[in-house]
Amino acid sequence: MSNLELFFSQQPTEIIAQQLLGKKMIYQSQKGEMAALIVETEAYLGQKDSTAHAYRGHRTPANEALYGPPGMIYIFSLRGRMMLNFITQQREVPQGILIRGIEPIVGKEIMKKNRLKHGFELTNGPGKLTEALGIVDRTLNLTLLNQGSLKLDLDKDYRPQKIISAPRIGVSRRGSWTDKPLRFFVAGNPYVSQLPKQQMDLINHGWQNF
Questions:
Q1: Intra-chain end-to-end CA distance of the chain, in Å
Q2: If 22 and its partner were Cys, which of 74, 138, 157, 178 is the partner (CB 3.0–4.6 Å)?
């Protein structure tokens, strides 16, 4: 197995979601290269998770990526925006992680032109970050990380001073999983979605090695 497959399959999904915080994501677009640190994630735990797309084994062409290999990209549309997910665990175990917030480090001017926004609003939400990257369709769906235009650097990362776990945002009210603390974020990072201003660390952005 590759390092990527090992990373996405050797731990429970909720642990992988925390290990992704501080990892660098690189996207090579037609407008140029962009890179950002992952600052917020949400774990979805498959058939048992009443908020997940694979709840009770639900399977359609639209969510087929969930049943793919570790490190596969799953993109779905929500209110006209693309949601970026990475698949975890082995094939046929439909678990994954939604990328909810990223901190731009390369190509920020390209992101601003894509979004027509600036400041922390640029990428502090799952639909905002894909718009900033220029991911506007499902072309990347069912493709693998590190084999195309979207890559994840597992060798270098930033270390959060503290990781917060909280209920997921905007998920289905169906069943008992709605309020489970499966959203993880870098405490104080201003690119975390819906983070109150008084909780923002505007000096170190919540990193140990900023």
A1: 32
A2: 157
Look at residue 210 in the predicted model and tell me its pLDDT: 63
Q: What is the DSSP string of 59-119?
A: --GGGGGGGS-TTBEEEEEETTEEEEEEEESSTT--EEEEEEEEEEEE-HHHHHHHHT--G
Query: Taking the CA atoms of the chain, what radius of gyration do you get in angstroms?
Result: 16
**How much is the pLDDT for 47?**
92
Answer yes or no: is pLDDT of 24 > 90. Answer: yes
What average pLDDT is seen over the chain?
95
**The pair of three-digit structure tokens given for residue 37, joined into one six-digit string:** 């640190």
User: pLDDT category, 173, cuts 50, 70, 90?
Assistant: confident
Q: What is the pTM of this model?
A: 0.96
Q: Are strands 73-78 and 32-44 parallel, antiparallel or unpaired?
A: unpaired
Neighbours of 62 (CB within 10 A): 14
From the centroid of its chain, how far is CA 35? Answer: 13
Task: Kindly tell me the sign of the dihedral angle through the C-alpha atoms of 163, 158, 3, 74.
Answer: positive
**In angstroms, what CA-CA distances link 74 with 129, 155, 183?**
15, 23, 18
The per-residue pLDDT for 157 is: 85
